[in-house]
Fold this sequence. Notes:
It is a single chain. The chain is an all-alpha fold. Helices cover 37% and strands 0% of the residues. It contains 10 helices and no strands. It has helices spanning 15-24, 33-41, 44-54, 61-73, 81-86, 98-107, 142-146, 178-188, 216-227, 232-235. It starts with 14 loop residues before the first helix and ends in a 13-residue tail after the last helix.
Amino acid sequence: YQRRSFFWDERAATLEDQVLLPIQNAVEMGMTLPALEARLGAEPFYVDLFTQVFGSPGVTSDRISKALAQFVRSIISVSSRYDAALTTNFVVGTNWTQSEERGRQLFNAPGGCSACHRTDNFVPDVNIFNNGLEFPYVDLGKGGITGQAGDNGKFKVGSLRNIELTAPYMHDGRFATLEAVVDFYSTQVVDNPNLSPPLRLPPQQGGGVRRPNFSAQQKADLVNFMKSLTDTSLATNPKYSDPFNYGY
């Protein structure tokens, strides 16, 4: 992610900043950092781990953020059906279906999804986008952080890897399924002053909102393509499972 910022509105400049904020948020973990330091510092299990990693037993917010950020950076998806098909140039056969290939072609068509979800990581370049969810804006997004009207309604574009496993969708979780997401981009994008260029028709076509009106088959193909980005080996890897036995 070339913009190197975190949260939907990009209010955290680094991953180290990001990992501490949910801990302190009143509607998430609701703890203060001093309370967090005291609680972890009272656990011999953590004191031993901090000594191994940092060379001394001190449990500080800075060390906690570094440890959490490094753990998050270790979670890399490279073994999806898409990745396997990539090695054979997406030849349709046993491991890559006609529907997935049709979805890939739609995804990468001019004005398609890849205008915002680029590369094999399916993330944007240096841009942040307004995807026409609403107008007037209920959530200012990036504009609420910068105070710039031109940023209103703009949100970070997340990777689509493992998107099948991360419902609900959009910054506010308004869509419960991938089918609902495809329906939105098919016919429901809302015009607004900050709508990003990939969602507009070119000037010679009037410059209005791009609404491709996908057929039922095209919608199914796009969903099947996105599901091909699921890395089941990552989702079931014991390295990322809960390390504690709570007795259930």
